[in-house]
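Translate structure to sequence.
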């Protein structure tokens, strides 16, 4: 029985690897770090744990529906989907591959080494949230279209609340920047 349970969990991870983020379809929910865990619950059901990019993320119901659709198509029922807010999602959970996909898609990925400026923990470290003095402003992101670092912020919020709207001064193209937090 244990081998079957392990196989089902492995299969669930494989299936969920292909579930795209509804707002940024070039990356999967696993690559963005939204998919936190796939495990056996105490009652034997598969439990999929997801964490929103921020607590008010309007895409979470769509993500849960997409997860359910993928698990149903793979005949992996019974299952349940749990949403957890702790630990809070951080852009440090975005994989390096996803960062490149974001850049190719025209979204500047968050800076990887931003811990000294924003108070975020380093990758894979869990720490309690602490309130700190206002951080120094981060340097402007490089343009995902031409690579220029000569960019300016047009709006604190872009196409979604987790992104800011920037424009490249050199190539004049607007782009979203996935804000680090």
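Result:
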């Amino acid at each position: 029985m244990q081998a079957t349970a392990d196989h089902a969990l492995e299969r669930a991870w494989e299936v969920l690897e292909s579930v795209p983020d509804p707002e940024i379809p070039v990356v999967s929910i696993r690559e963005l770090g939204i998919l936190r865990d796939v495990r056996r619950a105490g009652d034997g059901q598969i439990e999929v744990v997801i964490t929103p990019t921020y607590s008010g993320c309007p895409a979470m119901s769509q993500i849960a529906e997409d997860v359910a659709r993928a698990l149903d198509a793979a005949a992996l029922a019974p299952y349940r989907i749990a949403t957890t807010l702790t630990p809070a999602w951080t852009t440090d959970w975005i994989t390096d591959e996803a960062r490149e996909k974001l850049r190719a898609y025209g979204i500047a990925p968050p800076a990887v080494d931003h811990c000294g400026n924003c108070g975020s923990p380093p990758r894979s470290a869990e720490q309690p949230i602490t309130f700190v003095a206002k951080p120094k402003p981060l340097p402007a992101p490089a343009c995902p279209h031409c690579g220029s670092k000569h960019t300016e912020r047009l709006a604190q919020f872009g196409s979604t609340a987790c992104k800011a709207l920037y424009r490249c001064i050199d190539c004049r193209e607007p782009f979203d920047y996935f804000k680090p937090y």
